[in-house]
Amino acid sequence: TIMNITTQIKHLIAKDLRLEWRQKSAINSVLLYVASAVMLAYMAFLKIEPIAWVTVFWLILLFASVNAVAKSFVQENSEQQRYYYTLASPQAVILSKIIYNLILLLIISLVALLIYCILMGNPVEDMPMFLLATLLGASTFALTFTILAAIAAKASNNATLMPILSFPVIIPMLGLLIKISKAALLGTEDPNLYRDIGSLVAMDVMMLTLAFVLFPYLWRD
């Protein structure tokens, strides 16, 4: 039932939070990567063009998201996965991973944006729209990379497989995120803006549906 799945999701998210709290090195390493990448961009660009500002921001966030989500299933061995299989439904497992990674990426995205604006300046004209793009980006990365991490975890060479799988999937999504961010940057009324937002939301819904349908088969493998 829906209530039973909701309870399972709450317990699984709490389990991931406790695990993250005990092993703070994971999120600390990602935040360190973000801070180092922003500092490197600051030292490399004495004066950065606004369009390049947006592109560099999303590249930093993209690689930070890969590093943060890649460990979703790798950190649990096969015995732990079999144990979870006896306690929770596969739908609850994948949804809990997506929600947990979404929370994690939202924190990383907001911290990255804050550091980026402090060091690189803030040329954005429409900040609410840019924050919406950041929220959409965190959602897109959480959905996409969680599903790909689940697929890659079933392969022996998962560290190499995940970037290969993610490249053709994430590029069109990243293109839409940059277009939405450019509209927010310039503060202009782009007639295609809401179409791009709708397309990105539709892709997210498609990825969520794919996760809900595909993951039970991966889980039983």
Order of helices and strands: HHHHHHHH
Distance between the termini: 24 Å
Residue-averaged pLDDT, rounded? 82
Strand content of the residues, in percent? under 5%
| Total E-strand runs | 0
What overall form do the CA principal axes indicate? globular
Continuous helix count: 8
Stretches with pLDDT under 50, minimum 5 residues: none
**Rg over C-alpha atoms, rounded to the nearest angstrom:** 18 Å
The percent of residues in helical segments reads over 70%
- The class by helix and strand makeup works out as mainly alpha
Largest sheet: none
Quick gist of this model?
This protein is mainly alpha-helical and 221 residues long. The chain is built from eight helices and no strands. It has helices spanning 2-22, 25-44, 50-69, 78-87, 90-120, 127-153, 158-186, 193-220.
What does this structure look like?
The chain has 221 residues and is mainly α. It contains 8 helices and no strands. α3 runs parallel beside α6. The two termini are 24 Å apart. The mean pLDDT is 82.
In terms of topology, how is this protein built?
Elements: H1 2-22, H2 25-44, H3 50-69, H4 78-87, H5 90-120, H6 127-153, H7 158-186, H8 193-220
Helix pairs in contact: 1-5, 2-3, 2-5, 3-5, 3-6, 3-7, 5-6, 5-8, 6-7, 6-8, 7-8
